[in-house]
Amino acid sequence: MKSDDTSRRDFLLTGLLTGATLTGCSNGPNPFEDKVTAMIKPSGKMVKLLSVDGEVIEVDEAFLKPVDLPPVSNIEARKGIPGKKFVMVIDLSRCKSVKACQSACNHAHDLNPGDNWIKVYAMQDAEHTAPYWEPSTCMHCDEPPCVKVCPVDATFKREDGIVLIDSDRCIGCRFCMAACPYSTRVFNWGEPEIPKEVAAKPYSCETSIPQKKGTVGKCDFCADMTRKGELPHCVSACPNGVFFFGDMVEDTVTNGAETFRFSDLIRDKAGYRMMEDLGTKPSVYYLPPVNRNFPFEDDEDSVKDKHEKIKS
Amino acid sequence: MDIPARQKIIDDLLPKKFGTKGRVWVAVLLVICIIGMVAYARQLSSGLVVTSMRDYASWGIYISNFVFFVAISLVGSLITAVLRLVNVKWSTPLTRIAEIIAVSAITFAAIIIVVDMGRPERFYNLFLYGRLQSPIIWDVIVITTYFFISLLLLYFPLLPDFKIMIESRKVAGKFLNKIYSFLGSFWKNTPKQIKISRRSIRLLSITIIPVAFAIHTVTSWLFATTYRPGWDSTNFGAYFISGAFLVGAGAVLVAMYIFRDVYHLEKYITINHFDRMSKIVVLLALVYLYFNVNEFLVPAFKMKKTDADHLLGLFTGEYSTIFWFAISASMFLPILILINRKGRKPFPAFIAGSLVVVGSWFKRYLIVTPTLLHPFLPMTDVPESYKHYFPSWEEWAIAMGSLAGMLLIITIFARLFPIIPIQETISEKENEV
Amino acid sequence: MKYKFTYYALTIAFTLLTSGICLAQAEKNKLILGLGYFNDNNQIQYLKAGTKAKINGRFTPVGLIHLSFYISSESPSHLLGKATTDDKGQAVLMMPPSAKDEWDKSPKQTFLVVSDSSDLYNGTTTSIDLTKARIKIDTTEDKKIVVTLLEQKDSAWVPVPKVDLKIAIKRLGGDLNVSETPTYTTDSLGIAEAEYKYVNLPGDSAGNLILIASVEDNDVYGNLTSEKTVPWGTDSKYISKYNSRSLFARRGWSPIWLEWMAYSITAGVWLILFYLFVQIRKLRKLGA
């Protein structure tokens, strides 16, 4: 059977366990463990398991479940994960406008139907250049114009580069929407049409669930997933491997199946950023649509939308 | 000055009860306000979805109304402060009209901005969690400051008139007399008091000018600090301020005419006043025209890709009717009317002033929404209705309600207080003689 | 005569309708069940089952399916445990101590998973056969990586040739291959070798990298991993602009020049206002 390799991440904290069972100490921080495991506190409840060698061993229950971190406080959510800088690379030569990214994102965040955080643009830069599909998420700019103008600190940039929105703070002035040149923000004009159970969930900036009336929403780089060491939903959902995600500090990006050294990928495939001249310093890089996997096929909707726009 | 002459001035200028016209006027304004409040109640319960604003046109006529109100409120600094400082005497009858327009407008600017918020109940977040880096916070600071300065600039010159009003008990009822006493019974017209008052008014007049410049410059920066075509302009501060002076002066022309007509103030607001005020309007319209040329001709010369769609939309596209109407009504037509001696008579001046005000309202709309409908990236993955904007009935009701509210405050003020400063008029007539 | 015709027509219609409904009910959707065995770093082992069904022409994972896991055979004494699939259609069972007897019996094992039938899906069962194997990763001074794969035959561990491995560096969400070679295959001694070729690859703050050797989805051996930490990376110290003043920083962290300008202008004007309020008080006193 095919198993999801990424879910290996969900799981066992092999470094810590090896340390724990060998040294007999299960509480000291292991300097080699990744930061995800460091955040899990031993519950004290031990579970008996059969080891590979046929021995019965005891492991703390907290390390066994799929990583289930306690809900993050607002202060922690505003700070982010220090020492990391998340980037995304979108390979335009692979995009076929399947929009699985869009539906996975909308579903995972329980968005109001019709609000799309990911938009797939039919782009054609000039009259004689070739058209291509360009999916775009929030750029999580390093000099975000939206954060500059927010009057109440409802949108903010964290240590790990992610720009989040606090829907409990937002006053709905929509200045950030006017300031963003990438048209990436959406507004909950009315009460979001979401199931009651979703609307009753306690709000977290990292999950961005539930969306609230009269506040702004946008792509959050799935901050809750990245905190657990998992990939954002759009990255996992794309059948063509268009989205790559990773930590620039580790200099690696992956789309789940393929992993590349980020600096090599950008150098070899001439990666660039959208609207570089505006000075927003986006965290999303694009790989030009060279040697495409699919021809550009217009459907009716995109014919209406297609415009000539500058790409940088 | 002999007593009868003095008394005549007082009798002419004391606030009068509403006649039929006045009552009808107030009733109409109240009805419009109430419809606006009903519409706002709907908006509060369902959210901003009752408007036609959507993800692309995310700012609509609430924001253009806000800009319009802030613009009009600059008239206080122009007429009252600037002309006072230059020791122009003929503007005395107009100062209170200008000031109450200013105070009323700035009040409704604050109100309409809260109406535009998605979460008005979180208004206090601005004070609890405010970020100094945000132009909105700058706007909150300057608007509050300007409100208090304008209020003081209304209050100080009103002090001598309280004494007169209290003395003339026969006009006011017991309730109103109580208000006058509370506000200004301490004014005894002693030389010391006069000196303090004069100095304070002078200080206010000086202070209000930079604050007035600040208020409209900061409001213009709500747009100019973004990258969008039509907004990304270094010209915006001066452009907005010149437009604000123009619409304020136009509003004064309208108010002058109406008060003169309704309260029979022909002796105080004379043909000369219309003549001089009209000349000021012509001057301001020419200055504003100059800034408009800079604002549109220069980008049109270059036709940068991002600007091109926007400019063509204004000049020849879907906004062309409104654009050319606004330009003609706020600048060309008033200049043509008022440049002629005959045009500076009260009634033509009133028409020109009305054109200025109406044209300016549409001009503010053109500043706000068309830019938003020409984003950098094509409008994608949204319903067709998101790609256009025409305000819903709730938006119209609320916008008109706010305008009616502003007029209502001015009307009620004129009912309670003399719309032309009595004491100053007396002093001036004495000086003339 | 007229009524009789109507009567027959109604009866036939009703029968067709109900049988149609019954047929529709009888046809439950087919559930595709998969099972995998995982051995992480030669310590913890677990089984993972995944469900899929064709809904609206697309294969989608199915949640809330109750599964039972067995070792060797589907009998109550061989029950390892039960689990329910989550919304990604996956369920996991850690190997419990109760499996010890069967586990010790032989190097070859069989695991089964059975799904309970529900309103929408028929019950199904899947099994996998497993040969116990062990993977070990070792490194040398000159950054060469040696991975050994052994399987258990009787009571001895023998090398396994011709198995494809991945040798990579553990990164967020995925593993970065140590060199350009797509896969590494074990030779007759069960050994696969790789060379760490990266220059200046960032490690953690101490410069450490975690190497991982893995066998993935092998029909005989399941999924095996082995990890080793090596100090071959550069120490990565990333300091963001979070703690510096800027126009896009959080409240209280605006640039100094802005704070000076804004506060001094506001203070200046408000001092004037305050002075004017004092003047009003003076006027009151003078007139009292």
Characterization of this structure:
The complex is a heterotrimer of chains A (312), B (433) and C (288). By secondary structure, chain A is an alpha+beta fold. Chain A folds into 2 domains: 59 residues, no CATH class; 235 residues, 2-Layer Sandwich (Alpha-Beta Plaits). Chain A is 21% helix and 18% strand. In chain A, the strands form 5 sheets. Chain A has a 6-stranded mixed β-sheet with strand order 12-11-10-3-14-13. In chain A, strands 5-4-15 form a 3-stranded mixed β-sheet. In chain A, a hairpin with a 7-residue loop joins strand 4 and strand 5. The longest helix of chain A has 10 residues. The N terminus and C terminus of chain A are likely disordered. By secondary structure, chain B is mainly α. Chain B has a single domain, classed as Up-down Bundle (Formate dehydrogenase/DMSO reductase fold). Chain B is built from 16 helices and no strands. Chain B is globular and about 75 Å long. Chain C is an alpha+beta fold and 288 residues long. Among the domains of chain C are: 101 residues, Immunoglobulin-like, CATH 2.60.40; 98 residues, Immunoglobulin-like (Sandwich). Chain C is 22% helix and 41% strand. In chain C, a hairpin with a 3-residue loop joins strand 1 and strand 2. The model of chain C has no long low-confidence stretch (mean pLDDT 86). Chains in contact: A-B, A-C, B-C. Chains B and C meet through helix 7 and helix 9 of B and helix 3 of C.
User: What is the string of helix and strand elements of chain C?
Assistant: HEEEEEEHEEEEEEEEEEEH
Main β-sheet description of chain B: none
What CATH calls the topology of chain B is: Formate dehydrogenase/DMSO reductase fold
Q: Give the radius of gyration of chain B.
A: 23 Å
Structural class of chain B: mainly alpha
Highest-level CATH class of chain B: Mainly Alpha
> In terms of quaternary structure, what is this?
heterotrimer
Q: How many beta strands in the DSSP annotation of chain C?
A: 17
How many helices of chain C? 3
Q: Which CATH C-level class of the domain at 31-131 in chain C is it?
A: Mainly Beta
Euclidean distance between termini CA atoms of chain B: 8 Å
Sketch the major β-sheet of chain C. 9 strands, mixed
Could you tell me the mean pLDDT of chain B? 93
Number of strands of chain B: 0
CATH topology of the domain at 31-131 in chain C: Immunoglobulin-like
Q: What shape does the CA trace of chain C take? A: flat
* Low-confidence runs of chain C: none
Q: DSSP strand (E) fraction of chain B? A: under 5%
- Report the total helices of chain B: 16
